[in-house]
Amino acid sequence: MTKKLICLLLIVFASLGLMAQQQKRAVDQLVYPKLNDIQPPQVVEHQLSNGLTILMVEDRDFPSVNMVALVRGGKIAEPKEKNGLSELLGITLRTGGTTNMNGDDVDKYLDRIGASIDSYSSEGEVTLQSECLKENTDDVIKLFADFLKQPGFTEDKIDLAKTQMRSEISRRNDEPFGVVPRELNKILYGKDSAYARQLEYADLDNLKREDLLGFHKTWFRPDMTYLAVWGDFSAADMKARLEKYLGGWTNQGPKPQVVLPQIPPTSYSVNQIEKSDVEQTFIFMGELGLRYDDPDYAPVYMMSEILGGGFSSRLFKKVRTELGLAYGAGGGMSPAFDHKGMFYFYTSTKPSTTAKALQAMLDEIHKIRGELVTDVELKTAKEGFLNRFAFQFDSTAKLVNRMLIYKFYGYPMDFNQKLRAAVEKVTKEDIQKAAQNYLLPDKLAIVAMGKVKEFDEPLSKFGTVNTLDITIPTGKKVEMADNPQAEGKALELAKKAAKFMGEPALMNLKDIYLDGKVSMEGQEFPYKIYFVFPDKYAQELMFGEMSLKLIINGDKAIVSQGGQTAPLPDSEAGDVRKSMWTEANCVFLLKSIIDGTVKAQYLKEGTFAGQPHELVAANTPQGLFLLFIDKKTGQLSAVRYESMGEKGNEDIVEIYQNVKDVQGLKLPQQVTTNVNNEPKVSNKIWKVKVNSGIASATFEK
Question: Are 558 and 565 in contact (CB under 8 A)?
Fold first, then answer.
């Protein structure tokens, strides 16, 4: 490069720098006009003859009509012993059809006319909403009214909804950023509170159609319902239509009283969750917050935004930008309309920097309490809030829904304007005072989930540690009462089965390898099983040239394919761990009963495949297993247990067939698996190796 060209480039770069400085000064001198006031639509409020409150807004922009009904109730209205009732009702209110039209026919009708009706429930209300073209208004209002007055709640749709809800339960520990805030919620509100209560399989088994009908009869009534309608209509015409289809809806019996759950006082706590299938530590901390209508809401919200709201927040800058401990960090305030909301702050980091990241977050919380925020921080927080706030009201639908919520919870209809005005007046001193009054370090609940043994420092550094159990109950909880006689009989039968199998070889068994082929739904896949007792186990399935390997190594569970590995979600890991107990004619389970590490009891005499058998129950960490032991020979013929499938709990029976001697052990060469009494899987075993010395690398990443 010539000297002349270098000089020219230097001149260009200098010019660009000067231009950038001039542009920056120009930007700094820009004056932004005050945001326009939000203009609420013209609302016509009306009460039908039965007292039902209606908000109507004429909007001629589109030839459509929308409706939303809020029914007071929701989670706070369900009895504690009927946990999950409001959620089930929120689903089946729509899917179950009405007494005049079943759910499938409703689907077909709405699809044909391009309309929709949906329902769901939340903490404080059940929502029914619809949308249709103007030309179908009359028919859709009639159908909408039927859903409010006389839903069908058909058994088939109840069963389908329960299946979906069971599937959600089975997967609830798979997403870390769902697990940790859920557990924080339980700490702050109480695990039995309607604001935090967790749904279990047993709860679903306890819910019946009669419960839905009873809930509907109690809470679905005009004096507990608010309705908003907006779209292409005249208010006078809409009044007449709603009176026609909803005016005859009457209140039955005394008005139910809404009793809000008591929220316990919060106290400082440190909590950890051991989860071996995640590579990061997920940290949440929080405490109780405010209602929307709290007089200090505006400065408290600004404080939480400066501390945790977005890329410009203090937590993000400290934890990610300055310390480089995480991809993200943040938090904020989650308020509520009728009870205290919560503050929450979060990050995720390597296990080896867990304590360091947690300390950095705590330091920022102390810092915002001890000193004024900067002018730039205040300006950024206000502008961010006001800009986002405007987008909450940029359509008629958003405005009407917001006004309906205000009406429903007794807020003034101009609450949004008052809130914006309060935010605009917030000062730096207001924010520091808010932090000192509401952000209380001695009230924080801290939850960290990850590989606890790999944390850089134990969490006890921050206080006494509680270990939280997130195990998903199987639905039918089995607690074996002490019964020495039944336990002695079970041990006797286990030894009898071991004798048939070859007791010396069984008790000396250290590892086992199986090679075979599994057939399922017309597909066949070669497989290999590696099992080193007690806690190293791998299943390898072959798909042509590819293989998929599921590995259990102590408390770790991973999946490996094509040289790539990933943690195995808890729900899938649980299924693999369950297979360990039943592998190769339940050899590990029998050994565990005999050596006393698994508790077992004799149940009764019965028949299996037409032959007399003794039934033994074995209670393992992965659930209950029922062993069918031939009364005459001692052969273990089958094992029965429950597993969670796509449609809920499934009854599994593994039948052991074609027993042959393998190095002193009588083991089956074929296993047939019945699911809900139907043969689903056939497993042929080609090769078995006993105590072959399986390499530890088999179970590594």
Answer: yes
Short-list 397, 7, 449, CA closest to 228: 397
Is residue 175 packed enough to be buried (19+ CB in 10 Å), middle (13-18) or exposed (0-12)?
exposed
Provide DSSP, 480-507: PPP-HHHHHHHHHHHHHHHHHH-HHHHH
Looking at the DSSP bridge assignments, the partners of residue 549 are 540, 560
Beta bridge partners of 230: 57, 66
Note the pLDDT tens digit of each residue in 507-559. Answer: 999 999 999 999 988 889 999 999 999 999 999 998 877 889 999 999 889 99
Q: Which residues contact 644 (CB under 8 A, 6 or more apart)?
A: 166, 170, 201, 474, 571, 650
Q: Residue ranges of the chain with pLDDT lower than 50? A: 1-28, 32, 477-478
Distances (CA, A) of 252 to 85, 147, 186, 249, 596: 21, 17, 36, 9, 60
* Tally of CB atoms within 10 A around 209: 15
Contact 698, 517 (CB under 8 A): no
Which helix (H) or strand (E) covers residue 242, if one does? Answer: helix 235-246
Q: Which two tokens stand for residue 14?
A: 């200098």
Please, what are the domains in the chain? 44-246 (3.30.830.10), 269-397+411-467 (3.30.830.10), 484-699 (2.50.20.10)
- Encoding tokens for residue 665? 């052990």
Q: How far is 151 from 117, CA to CA, in rounded Å?
A: 13
Is residue 124 helix, strand or coil?
coil
- The three-state (H, E, C) secondary structure of 632-653, written as one string: CCCCEEEEEEEEEECCEEEEEE
Q: How far apart are CA 469 and CA 285, in angstroms?
A: 18
CB atoms within 10 A of CB 167: 16
- Whole-prediction pTM value? 0.74
3-class secondary structure, 102 = coil
SS (H, E, C) 412-470: CCCHHHHHHHHHHCCCHHHHHHHHHHHCCHHHCEEEEEECHHHCCCCHHHHCCEEECCC
> What is the bridge-based pairing of β-strands 445-450 and 556-561?
unpaired
State pLDDT tens for residues 587-636: 999 999 999 999 999 988 988 888 999 999 999 988 889 999 999 999 99
CA end-to-end distance (rounded Å), the chain? 52
What residues does 628 pair with on adjacent strands? 615, 638
Q: CA-to-CA distance for 569 and 581, rounded, in angstroms?
A: 19
- For 180, the enclosing helix (H) or strand (E) is helix 176-189
* Tokens representing residue 73 in the block: 């109730």
Give CA–CA dist 126/93, Å, rounded. 10
How would you classify the pairing of strands 281-288 and 329-334?
unpaired
Radius of gyration from C-alpha coordinates of the chain: 32
Reduced to 3 states, what is the DSSP secondary structure of residue 332?
strand
Alpha-carbon gap, residue 220 to 84, rounded angstroms? 18
Query: Which pLDDT value is given to residue 30?
Result: 52
Longest dimension (CA), the chain: 104
Looking up tokens 């249709």, which residue turns up? 132
Contact 97, 157 (CB under 8 A): yes
3-class secondary structure, 639: strand
* Pairing status of strand 665-675 against strand 678-690: antiparallel
**Which amino acid, residue 404?**
L
Rounded Cα gap, residues 339 and 74, in angstroms: 14
